[in-house]
Amino acid sequence: MYFLLSQLSLMDLTYISTIVPKMASNFLFGNKSIFFIGCGIQSFFFLTLAGAEGLLLVSMAYDRYVAICFPLHYPIIMSKRMYVLMITGSWIMGSINSCAHTTYALHIPYCRSRAINHFFCDVPAMLTLTCMDTWVYEYTVFVSTSLFLLLPFTGIACSYGRVLLAVYRMRSAEGRKRAYSTCSAHLTVVTLYSAPFAYTYLHPKFLRTPTEDKVLAVFYTILTPILNPLIYSLRNKEVMGALKRVIQRICSVKM
Description:
Keywords: Cell membrane, G-protein coupled receptor, Membrane, Olfaction, Receptor, Sensory transduction, Transducer, Transmembrane, Transmembrane helix. The chain has 255 residues and is mainly alpha-helical. It is 80% helix and 0% strand.
């Protein structure tokens, strides 16, 4: 579990570093421009991390499912090899998906204004500037979002349905409390991450406004990466204990 949490922290740190520094610079200094290749790089890392995190959340749900429903088989099923395969697969599949979308976005002709009505280089916002019909690509976006968002969310919902059923049958009240706490934290993160993403990328663009896209993007680009450490780490007794020990050491060194 901690190995998966460390990967989630790495993804969130890189994720928010891809969007927020440039966005903050635009607001603070008024320099709202970006090089074309810089826009492509930002879009590539954003899509890579978005896809990889969606798959990682499925891995975390599976980890909890095995831990609660099959506790005696957990060390066998969730081996180090399985963890490595989960993490590697998330990064590789996210990168391949991102590479395909970014390459397409950088090679389509733009004949309108180059002003993107967004706070980062989001592909749907870039498509509004093209001078060609992009319905085929929009269909691929729908398929890609379904594979990296809807299917993982369905898998997570099914796994937690089994988990909640197993928890309900527990005799230990303390065990039920800990299981409910863990599951509710994960489901909160998944919902905050998936719902805005699904609305933006699965909703037809003529039924959305740029303002809606920007407001919803705040959830999956800023709020979710900020809330993840609070939801996962600070609610964990072991992590809180380690944090207190570090603070005590720092205070003792200063004194």
